[in-house]
Design a protein that fits this description.
Strand order of the largest sheet: 5-6-7-3-9-10
Largest sheet: 6 strands, mixed
Structural class: alpha/beta
Radius of gyration: 19 Å
Strand content: 15-25%
CATH architecture of one domain: 3-Layer(aba) Sandwich
Mean pLDDT: 80
Number of strands: 11
Amino acid sequence: MSALIEARDLTIWRPGTKEPVLSHVDFRIDPGEVVTVVGPNGSGKSTLVRALLGHMPLAGGQVVRQAGLRIGYVPQRVQLDTAMPMNVRRFLSLPRRIDAAAASAILARTGVEGLERRPLSQLSGGQFQRVLLASALLHDPHLLVLDEPTQGLDQPGLVAFYKLIDEVRRQTGAAVLLVSHDLLVVMRSSDRVICLNGHVCCEGSSRQVSSAPEYRALFGGGAEGMLALYRHDHDHDHDHAVDQAHHHPRGASPDA
């Protein structure tokens, strides 16, 4: 199967240095696939996303995208200028104007119908994340990229948001790349989990990772088939292979 997007031997340096943020990273995501990337702060998760989107200079390797690939992106943070009030309808028309019917339809899909005239500054955290998701879905993406999209949400809001993502994936068939600091994995539908810490430490299917002794020592058993909400403290030893087929030690400097 041809990958939607693929990173080959990707290396990225910290700005102004030759110290690697990411070293020799191989990554791919195929049509309809759900891939979850986890790792501690500073592990290079958001750097990987920016590289895949074409927003980071590469020190080595390459990123290959399928011709005509459409990507919907829900960023980690959005800075709002409260001095320039903007309502939801206007926000959805950035950068390309959409008509009222399209705006209403996409907001209904993400469960925030009727908010077209609401100023962004007056939205709750959960409402704002759903508006961001609506914007990302406007142009029928082949790949939906979510970079730590639930920061600031309480646990009920977090669970509701990930249920919505699961519904969107089933309805649209879009592939999903989910990036998280905390291990937030929809175990029943995540096809692969990748542990990143400046390099690919280990990876595998949800079933393989959840049954691995190292994974169970960290997160406990019984996680498969449920939404797993765990903190990933990255205190395990990646020098001991979980499985030779799913463990990829790389020489990389620690990334605090």
